[in-house]
Specification:
With 134 residues, this protein is an alpha+beta fold. The protein has one domain. 30% of the residues lie in helices and 22% in strands. It is built from 3 helices and 5 strands, in the order H-E-E-E-E-E-H-H. A 5-stranded antiparallel beta sheet has the order 1-2-3-4-5, with helices on one face. A hairpin with an 8-residue loop joins strand 4 and strand 5. Helix 1 packs across helix 2. The longest helix has 16 residues. This is DUF6292 family protein.
């Protein structure tokens, strides 16, 4: 159930950002993580690929791709909810990649999602499109 919910959530985030789901991956093991390859580049890191990383402890991080043996170079972290709405993640990415990014999204506080059952339920809710009733 957790893997299915994570895949749905990451697909919703990729769709909100405007990237193909083929550039995403998820893993549910000791940790719960996701990866989204970004097609845009940062003005501060021209010529370097960017990625969006998610884990159940810290939420979303935008980082510069590095060599496999090196840790990613963090550009910014999305504060607040560990499982934010996909539209908020898209605004975060767009703002961080703009030339005027102020760093206001970054947070250094450690956050952790609830137990795996509660995490799956939260991911699943965020993955569903919002249906507006008239």
């Amino acid at each position: 159930m957790l893997r299915r919910a994570l895949v749905g959530y990451v697909r919703a985030v990729a769709d909100a950002i405007g990237v193909s789901v083929e550039g995403t991956s998820c893993e549910v093991a000791d940790t719960v993580t996701a990866y989204v390859a970004l097609s845009r580049r940062s003005p501060r890191h021209p010529g370097r690929d960017l990625m969006l990383l998610w884990n159940s402890r810290q939420g979303w991080t935008l980082a510069v791709e590095t060599a496999p043996a090196e840790p990613p170079l963090v550009v910014s972290r999305l504060g607040g909810d560990v499982v934010p709405e996909p539209a908020l993640v898209a605004r975060f990415v767009a703002d961080v990649l703009s030339a005027s990014h102020s760093g206001a999204w970054t947070t250094s506080t450690s956050r952790t999602a609830a137990d795996r059952g509660a995490l799956a339920a939260r991911l699943e809710r965020r993955a569903r499109p919002v249906v507006r009733r008239s």
